[in-house]
Design goal:
By secondary structure, the chain is an alpha+beta fold. Helices cover 30% and strands 22% of the residues.
């Protein structure tokens, strides 16, 4: 009576195909088998990228899944000049992380984990670090030659205010010593900071000092989370206490300097998406909503919501909303009232914005 309730001999359940176990496994490990390759030259295509990285992986001894090519798939975004390169195994993807900075068609490329990489899940699937036995010299690389942003001394810095610039963040981190590598993670569409970064110190002995001093510090409306990216936090040794005290004093000074002064202009982030801004009707609705909501805090003079370029290229300030009030009081009320509120499902971040930059049409600060 109910033939579709029972498996059929051809491996299907009713009219729906059953996914083979191998395909299910590949899907489950995909996030850990892909690497992000950025800074590709315009001449790059899927075939040249796949061939190059397969050859390089073989040259350094990074192939651990047997004979054949390490690369099984490549997706290229030519407009943004990056690719996702999918490896056969989790271990081979981890070995590929050692290729950061390698020269491809005359240009150094960045090799990173993709944004959907889940370290907790990946840890159960295979090695998360490159093998120590890779022959990087065979392809002209040395361990850490491109900034050394992989390894046990890599530091995760989270909870960064979105208005912090890269030089400001580096200055904060360099309170403890020079950096060997630094990477502020940005939104690939807007170029805006995503609020977290990674770094490695030249003198790895200060790593735990930096983590202990910076972790938990209030910066604007945020609280920093600073720890070793691949390990639990550890405490500085007694002989490092004087370094820690000096660095904490420097941080206290910088915290005061990094607080943006009150102005008549408020900048909102985490409010709108690029797709919403492309649609004319949605853009007008957002603009009207912003005018209505923002007028509750004081006399609103102007609202600016930068839009993407018609050709899809990046435009300064996309993803931000700028509110100009007649006086500082209105802006102060708006900042206090808007910060942390939900708008379109996002938690709004509101900060003061320099008036001179706003009047000059400079929205990338």
């Amino acid at each position: 009576m109910f033939p579709n309730l029972f498996p059929t001999p051809n491996g299907q359940f009713g009219s729906l195909p059953v996914m083979p176990i191998q395909a299910m496994t590949q899907q489950a490990t995909r996030h850990a088998r892909r690497v992000y390759v950025g800074g590709l030259p315009p001449s790059a295509n899927e075939q040249t990228v796949a061939t190059y990285f397969s050859q390089v992986m073989a040259a350094i001894g990074g192939n651990t899944a047997g004979p054949g090519d390490a690369v099984v798939n490549v997706y290229i975004n030519h407009e943004k000049k990056f690719a996702f390169v999918e490896m056969r195994s989790v271990e081979e993807a981890s070995n590929a992380m050692a290729l950061d900075g390698i020269i491809f068609e005359g240009a150094p490329v960045k090799v990173r984990r993709p944004s959907d990489y889940n370290p907790s899940l990946a840890a159960a699937l295979g090695p998360s670090q490159p093998s120590a036995n890779l022959n990087l010299a065979a392809v002209g690389l040395n361990p850490g030659s491109s900034g050394g942003l992989e390894g046990p001394d890599r530091v995760f810095v989270g909870g960064l205010p979105y208005y912090f610039t890269e030089p400001q963040i580096r200055e904060l981190l360099e309170s403890f010593g020079a950096l060997r590598g630094f990477d502020l993670v940005r939104d690939r569409e807007t170029g805006n900071s995503k609020g977290y970064a990674f770094c490695v110190y030249q003198d790895v002995a200060v790593t735990d000092v930096a983590c202990a001093a910076l972790n938990g510090i209030k910066m604007g409306d945020k609280t920093l989370t600073v720890r070793r990216a691949n390990q639990g936090s550890s405490q500085p040794r007694p002989e490092q206490e004087s370094v820690l005290l000096h660095a904490q004093q420097q941080i206290a000074i910088q915290r005061l300097m990094l607080q943006p002064p009150a102005t008549k202009v408020v900048c909102l982030t985490q409010v709108v998406t690029v797709d919403e801004l492309r649609d004319d009707d949605e853009y007008e609705e957002i603009m009207e909503d912003m005018r209505t909501e923002s007028s509750k805090f004081g006399t609103l003079v102007s609202v600016v919501i930068p839009r993407p370029q018609l050709d899809g290229s990046a435009s300064p300030g996309v993803g931000k909303v700028f509110l100009e009030y007649a006086g500082v009081d209105g802006a102060t009320n708006a900042r206090a009232g808007m910060n942390g509120r939900k708008f379109g499902g996002n938690e709004v971040v509101a900060v003061f914005y320099p008036e001179n930059k706003y009047y000059a049409g400079e929205y990338d600060g």
